[in-house]
Amino acid sequence: PRVDDGQVRTVVEHIVALVRQGEIGEAEALTGEVKQLGLYVELQQQRWHTADGRAGAVEPFTMSSSRPSANGCGGAPGAEASELPNPSAARPQPVSLASVMREQERGKGGAAGILNPRGEFNCFLSVVVQALWHVRDFRDAVMASEGDDTILCALQETFAGLTAANGAAGAPPQPVSVESLRVALSATDAGARFRLGDMADAAEAFEALLERLRDCGAGRAVGQFEYDMHDSVGGSYPQFVLYANVDDIITTANLQRVPFESALRLVTSDSAVGNRKTGQSPPSVLTLGLVWASSRPPKEQLSHMLDLIDERLDLAKVIGAPDGASAPAQLVGLVCYQASHYCAIVRDEESGTWRQFDDTAVTVVGESWLDVRFKCHSSRYQPALALYQNTREPAFGGGAAEAGGTWANMATRCAARGGITEPSRTPSGGVAAAA
User: Fold this and answer.
1) Measured between alpha carbons, how far is 129 from 115 in angstroms, rounded to an integer?
2) Omega before residue 60 within 30° of 0, cis
């Protein structure tokens, strides 16, 4: 399929963003993938061109008029490339690192980021705060809670800062600090895992915050995420995160050819973990914890997992429900890990736009789950936590999840699958992994 002008601009600007963030390897990998779609990005020459004759500068992005090749067909890379018209714009001037950092701090994504001063390693906590703040019912319940617990007070302070920064009119949102929350977390019983100046696990921080809030009387807020699990011997225990092994999910989906929600049910109901099932209605937000065998998984494994993740789930089919009624839920946030660093990709409730929160840098990812999947694939982001909000109505006014076959979806499949393919669909609507 022909890559249209808007798609060309999106990819070129994304590659430029990767370079400016220092992710040179990812930029080169994506450049190689899009060649299969007839788009050639020459980073050293600061130029791009397509097989059908369009061309332009990389930064700032420009595009010349499209023209056919001499034989009337789409051109091919190689000798014909030298005949492409030169971009009309002058060669772009180098951009200083300082100006890039200023642009990021001004909040180009339209939302407030979180400070992560050098040596503090706060990213694991920042992404949890962003994910939780974007769940409006949880945010409102936290702000309405009363008490003098240090964790509660510090979280209220942070939430108030984000609310004020995001609501400020006439000025770009300013980043806020999580210093007080980091200090309070380090002083809890679980503080040994969250020592100041040390990197820590985002999933553990997520659970530690919710557990402390439950113990200090903020039960209404915590109730958005908590549900009881019952084991095979009649015991029960509260839970905030449903953990599932990535290898097991992929294997189960491949062998049994079932959709994502069914694979999750089978994996998390295995006898090795006590045939777990819920005895009550699913929570308002189900948090899925994806357990990876490696912090640098093979590209093929990451691609498989991203292909399997569905934007919509029936929570009753994942953890059960007492009356058997369906419990539709929509993906509203991801906490991702890459190269010893965390970022959050969260969907804005009002606009439906997905934003990436990477410390103080806030950028717009796109308007669809396919945009998020493309971003995760190209940047090698490993989803560590996935938040699904329980709703019987579409949470953001969307219709059915987009089927594969769009340009973004095909681009993400190129490298791992050796070409552009349409994902096969099981009768229930899930993506069946390729054999």
Assistant:
1) 12
2) yes
